[in-house]
Design a protein that fits this description.
The protein is of the alpha/beta class and 259 residues long. 30% of the residues lie in helices and 21% in strands. The model has no long low-confidence stretch (mean pLDDT 96).
């Protein structure tokens, strides 16, 4: 298949690189367009009030690659409308692998990773977002090291990327064009070669108190909060699947909004 690949952690993120390598090793044709800088928690925002610059990049992906100084939505929109070669018609837009989970109502809408996939859906394409669940301790270590996973985590990431390369063509093939569907896939920590996939729904999580009290200069700082899960007991949610060690697959059908 032909895939357009993006992310929200930036073009130099190893999590993106491992997804690209796994897809390429599986024989797929790729084009990559990713933000110049991390764009986490940007949701589906677009750069309305400034010009956006796109440039050819060289990351040894063996496929056309661009760096965009904008959001994931900017990346996909500009790529589909202006950057891709006329003979490269993507079968789907893939986004990820994100550093950290994108599970539950409290995080899905804010996710730049899911937004990158959603931009593909807005262009009538099948769309899939991939994210790697991490503990807060592991996440802090990655950020302290400049987004460089240690050898154990890197090995897990490679396995998650192989799952993504297997799932992407399957999910793209069963998704009709112009269906406004995003497949949201989250990999557990650890993820193994034989880790099964579970079909899930978003956990009903509220996320209060995301900002610190005002400092002396009147500013507030974003602070991490996993949120409060209000999901009914027994509901097969993305969060419960990850906790149980399964790969979570949630179908986000945006035609169902308001029904």
């Amino acid at each position: 298949m032909k895939f357009l690949v993006t992310n929200d952690d930036g073009l130099d993120c190893i999590f993106l690189h491992e997804l690209v390598h796994a897809l390429r090793d599986a024989g797929h044709s790729l084009a990559v367009v990713a933000p110049k800088h991390e764009q986490s928690w940007m949701g589906a925002s677009k750069s309305r009030n400034r010009p956006v610059h796109a440039a050819v990049a060289h990351r040894h992906f063996q496929c056309p690659t661009w760096c965009v100084d904008g959001t994931p939505s900017d990346c996909v929109n500009i790529a589909l409308d202006h950057l891709l070669a006329p003979d490269f018609k993507p079968d789907a837009v893939l986004s990820g692998i994100n550093i950290g989970l994108n599970a539950s109502l409290g995080f899905i809408i804010a996710s730049g990773t899911i937004a990158g996939a959603w931009e593909g859906a807005l262009h009538g394409l099948p769309a899939i977002a991939f994210s790697q669940d991490l503990s807060s301790e592991v996440y802090d270590r990655i950020k302290a090291s400049g987004d460089r996973p240690d050898p154990d985590l890197h090995a897990i990431l490679k396995i998650s990327a192989q799952h993504a390369a297997r799932l992407a063509p399957q999910l793209a093939a069963v998704t009709a064009p112009r269906s406004f569907i995003v497949h949201n896939v989250n990999f557990p920590l650890p993820c193994r070669a034989d880790t099964p996939v579970r079909r899930t729904v978003p956990a009903q999580v509220i996320v209060p108190k995301l900002f610190s009290p005002a400092a002396d200069d009147g500013t507030h700082r974003l602070i991490w909060n996993i949120g409060d899960d209000l999901s009914p007991a027994g509901l097969a949610t993305d969060r419960t699947a990850l906790t149980a060690g399964f790969i979570s697959h949630t179908v986000l059908d945006y035609t169902k909004l308001g029904q």
